[in-house]
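Marked as duplicate of an earlier ticket. Keeping the data here for the record.
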Amino acid sequence: MIETNKVSTMRSSILDGIEVKSATFTDKIFPFHFHQCWSLARIEYGSENIAFNNAAFLVSKNALQLIPPYSIHKNWSHTKSAWTYKALYIGNDVVKSVSKKLKADYSQLASFPYFLSYCNSGLEISETSIFKIIESLFLDTLNNLEPSCLQKNTGAPFGDVLNYLSQNYNQSITLEMLEQTFKMNKFKLQKSFKKNIGLTPLEYLTTIRIENSKKLFYTDAPLVEIALESGFYDQSHFTHSFKKYVGVTPGSYKKNSKILQD
């Protein structure tokens, strides 16, 4: 029997320390969120639904998905069946290297919401394999699709707000504070931000906090310290948010996180 709602992560030494995640879920709905780095994932068992700003579809076993940083998406289980996937979280420099080799515009590639293909072979954790997969995904998209069909919203009108949230995520931030800082009615700000970005300001802030908290799980810091350092006001708030966005509790995530040695 497949064990469900389980996540294990490893920090590899290759490519400046990519994170490798293996996960299995059943009947799980992840809210709209994003990652701060490139996410390369392969469905190893079952299938999942995934939605972006202007597209939603079902992906099944052997699907390869490459999602750029800050591309907002939502995924959930197909019916109540289990789905298993392996995901690699890759830094920008790696992808810039691939785009340079292809003589492609990195900024243009990063503006796409996703890249999708199918591959029967597993996701090998090696530099050669990862470079080859990313290159193939880029070429498939550039050769077969109009870039305008895949453009994601860049959030340009809210650049100052996005930067503020990213730089001050570990501080106490409220809509009232944003209203005072950016001289915009908080209700108008929330509505416009949601329409243009795809998340409310506080949802965006929570995602930033979750993303930054995961970097601390490979240290000796206790969970309460990780929670406070990431901007959560207490461990209970941290646990609730983390499980909602990651699928398991912080304690389980930390227990199943390790660093791979050379």
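See parent ticket for discussion. Residues 127-144 form the longest helix (18 residues).
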